[in-house]
C-alpha cells in the first residue's frame, strides 16, 4: 500500500511516499531555517507563505523520487494538528484538494503520532505497546503507545518544551536559531559538572516536566556574568544545561517505565537528535535491560516520511477525513477531533 505523506506544521515543507508503512520510497524536506534565523525564531506569517510556494514542488519531487504517480497512491496523509495554524492550513488545504481531485482517501495525521512513527521506519521489529519519550521544539511528553493509533499521555511539560529550552539557552550563549544542535556541539567541549543547575519538583503528577526554571537559571548565569564583566565558560554552561535537561527527560522516562512495567522504550522528536539525551537514555535502558529504539538522525526532525508511515496505520484503522477537515493548532495526542473522521 502506497501513502503520500505531507507535513507543514512548522518551518519544514515536507512530503514522502511510504510503502506498507515501514518502507520509505522518497523523503523530501524543504527547510526554511535560513529565512527564520535572522529573526531568532519562526515567524508564522513567513512560514505560511513559504509553505504555499514550496508545497507543490516538494510533493511533485516526493512522487518523482519514489518513481510513482499520484494515481498509484492508495491514500493521502497530512499533518492537521498541532502546530502553527497558518502553516498547517497550507498542507491541509493542499491535501484536501489532492484527495478530492484524485478521489483518494484523506488521512488526517497528528504531528506527534508522526514523530512516534519515525521509529517504525528504522526498526522493523518495533511494535506497540511501548513507552515513548517525545521531545521537540513545541512538545515534551511521555506517551503510552498502546497501539499504532492509540495513545495515552502519561506525562507532559508544565511550561516550556525541551527543544524550546535548548533554543533559548543557545540564544543567550550567542548561537543562531535553532540552537539545539549548537548546544549539543558546544556541550561536547565543556564540563557538564561545572555549573549546578536546578531540577524542579513538579507538584501533582511527578512524571511531568518543567524546563522553564532550568532555562531561566542558564539565562541568569549568563546575564549576571555579563553585568559583572566576567567571562562565562559557554561550553561548560551548554554541557551543564544539556546534562540537566537530559537527566530530567531520562529520569522521568525510567520512572514511567517502572510505574507501567514497560520494558520497551522509544525516543522521538527533534531533541531525540541530541547526543547527550541519546547516550544517557541508552545507559539507563542498558542498566535495566530495557529495549531502546531511537530514530536515525535524519528522521528526528520534522519530515514527511513519519507522516506517510503513521498515515498508513491511520488508514488501515479507518481514520479517514472528508472535505470538512480543518487544521487545529492545539490538540493533545490521543484526543483527535472525531468530527473530522467519517
Ligand atoms: O520535532 P522538531 O523538528 O519540530 C517540532 O515539532 O517542534 O524539533 C525541533 C527542535 C528544536 O527546538 C531544535 O533546537 C531541537 O529540536 N533540536 C535539538 C537538536 N537537534 C534539533 N535539540 C538538542 N540537540 C540537538 N542535536
Ligand atoms: Zn515536530
Could you write a compact summary of the structure shown?
The protein is an alpha/beta fold and 342 residues long.
Which CATH first-tier class of the largest domain would you pick? Answer: Alpha Beta
Oligomer: single chain
The residue ranges in which pLDDT falls below 50 over 5 or more consecutive positions are none
Query: How many strand units?
Result: 10
Structural class: alpha/beta
H-E string: EEEHHEHEHEEEHHHHEHEH
Radius of gyration based on Cα positions: 20 Å
Ends distance = 21 Å
Q: What is the name of the CATH superfamily of the largest domain?
A: ATPase, nucleotide binding domain
- Outline, from the CA principal axes? globular
Give the distinct bound molecules: 5'-O-[(R)-(carboxyoxy)(hydroxy)phosphoryl]adenosine, zinc ion
CATH topology (fold) name of the largest domain: Nucleotidyltransferase, domain 5
Count of structural domains: 2
Q: Helix segment count?
A: 10
What percent of the residues sit in helical stretches (DSSP H or I)? Answer: 40-55%
| Widest sheet: strand ordering | 3-2-1-4-5
Question: Can you describe this structure?
Answer:
- The protein is an alpha/beta fold.
- The chain folds into 2 domains: 2-116 and 302-340, ATPase, nucleotide binding domain (Nucleotidyltransferase, domain 5, 2-Layer Sandwich); 127-299, Nucleotidyltransferase, domain 5, CATH 3.30.420.
- It is 43% helix and 19% strand.
- It contains 10 helices and 10 strands.
- It has helices spanning 33-37, 44-66, 85-102, 111-122, 162-172, 180-187, 212-227, 234-260, 275-288, 305-316; strands at 2-7, 12-19, 23-31, 75-81, 106-110, 130-135, 140-147, 150-156, 264-268, 291-293.
- The strands form 2 sheets. It has a 5-stranded mixed β-sheet, sandwiched between helices. A 5-stranded mixed β-sheet has the order 8-7-6-9-10, with helices on both faces.
- Helix 9 links the parallel strand 9 and strand 10 (291-293).
- The mean pLDDT is 96.
- It binds 5'-O-[(R)-(carboxyoxy)(hydroxy)phosphoryl]adenosine and zinc ion.
- Residues 10, 136-138, 163, 166-167, 178-181, 183-184, 269-271, 273-274, 301-302 line the site of 5'-O-[(R)-(carboxyoxy)(hydroxy)phosphoryl]adenosine.
- Zinc ion binds at residues 111, 115, 136, 270, 302.
